[in-house]
Design goal:
The protein is 38% helix and 11% strand. The protein has 386 residues and is of the alpha/beta class. Strand 2, helix 4 and strand 3 form a beta-alpha-beta unit. The structure holds pyridoxal-5'-phosphate. The site of pyridoxal-5'-phosphate has 14 residues, from helix 3 and helix 4.
Length: 386
């Protein structure tokens, strides 16, 4: 049994039984979309759990980012400063709203942009940016206060792509925070997303944009938008997912704890992503030294333990974004290959954790020689290994 492949991610959404009571409400109300009672209740409960006064539900996380950028980006400007190290959805969203990503580097420990990093790059940009898209690293909390001060200092709006961080939010400020409700995120409903904010007027406009720009009671398009709503059926799954959320968060916390205790007890030269366990994620990463990458992934492969670089080696490595300008990606190039997504789900047993952690290098043993060139080779490759 222990030789079965270990899957890296096994999503778990509410069961039919958990969703059923909400489906009966749809049958009775005969309202199926257009901000119906279930969607309204789901938005309210989501606002309560994230400390967010305004909640706009969207068809997915990518459209949430697009709508927030359309409302926030400064008119007449073309660039959107963003890290290359993120899921490609972030870069697609930026391009879809007519902006050009200006890919910048990340902090090597937190794996995200900092206001200081962006302020150091601003003078080097060919023109001032329309916005900054700040990413949460795999669900980690975001520095809303630090970025609010950045906005005041620089007059450049900030939008957060906190796609995986919905359970790490306890108070949402002025700048829009976009989350994903995709099946592979902690609060998964299949497909869905939301824009959270404390700015009620912004929220009204964002919500209007999800429904053809209708504002008020008349069927008048007050602003350009589209159809990015969720149906009442999706909202039913959302309500059931919120019911089941505490149990899921507890399970994911236990997974992080299982890794942390073993990594420490067996003295591994590898670390869990900073802070994980205090917050939870479906894409749990163990970060190794560049020299240890090759040996580690070979061991995982040999043991049939699935692993994944959830964000690949950075957006700039994808052909779709190869023509976007970059402004120094030394840290991204060095760190991205070392971020190894490991199995994270409720099907893992004690012996699975033991076996996975044993694939990581022991601090007691010297590094394998020449392994460092493996990371350099990876950086040289035209098309990244994802
Ligand atoms: C999942 C994710 C998205 C996209 O969300 P969808 O709901 O799949 O559109 C965007 N950015 C990041 C960082 C993500 O992890």
């Amino acid at each position: 049994m222990s030789n079965l492949p270990v899957k890296v991610l096994v999503p778990s959404l509410p069961t039919i039984a958990q969703i059923e009571p909400y489906l009966h409400r749809i049958d009775s109300a005969r309202i199926y979309s257009n901000f119906g009672p279930l969607a309204t209740e789901f938005a309210q409960r989501l606002g309560g759990s994230t400390g967010s006064e305004s909640v706009t539900l969207t068809s997915n996380g990518t459209s949430a980012i697009e709508i927030a950028l359309r409302l926030k980006a400064l008119p007449g400007r073309k660039l959107c400063v963003m890290p290359s190290f993120t899921f490609v959805a972030s870069a697609h969203a930026v391009c879809n709203v007519g902006l050009t990503p200006a890919f910048v580097d990340i902090d090597p420990v937190s794996l995200v942009l900092t206001p200081e990093l962006v302020e150091a790059v601003l003078p080097r940009l060919p023109e001032q940016p329309a916005a900054v898209l700040v990413i949460s690293a795999f669900g980690a909390p975001i520095d809303q206060e630090g970025w609010a001060r950045f906005e005041v200092r620089n007059g450049i709006p900030v939008v957060f792509d906190a796609a995986a961080a919905v359970t790490a939010l306890h108070h949402v400020g002025h700048a829009p925070v976009c989350v994903s409700l995709h099946a592979t995120k902690v609060l998964g409903i299949g497909e869905g997303g939301a824009i959270l904010s404390s700015d009620a007027e912004f929220g009204q406009r964002a919500t209007a944009m999800t429904g053809f720009g209708f504002m008020g009671v008349e069927r008048t398009s007050a602003l350009r938008g589209g159809n990015f709503r969720i149906s009442e059926y999706a909202a039913a799954v959302g309500l059931a997912a919120l019911d089941a959320l505490p149990t899921k968060v507890e399970m994911l916390r236990n997974v992080a704890f299982a890794y942390r205790t073993r990594l420490e007890a067996t003295g591994r030269r590898a670390r869990l992503q900073e802070g994980v366990g205090d917050w939870v994620t479906m894409s749990l990463n163990i970060i190794v030294e560049p020299d240890d990458v090759k040996a580690t992934i070979e061991k995982l492969d040999a043991q049939e333990i699935q692993w994944r670089r959830w964000w690949g080696l950075g957006c700039h490595r994808h052909p779709a974004f190869a023509d976007c300008p970059t402004f120094g990606l030394a840290v991204t190039n060095k760190v991205a290959p070392t971020v190894i997504g490991v199995p994270c789900h409720d099907g893992l047993k004690d012996e699975d954790f033991d076996r996975i952690v044993a694939c990581f290098p022991s601090a007691a043993h010297a590094r394998t020689t020449q392994a460092g060139s493996f990371v350099e080779d990876l950086i040289e490759q035209e098309v990244p290994t994802l």
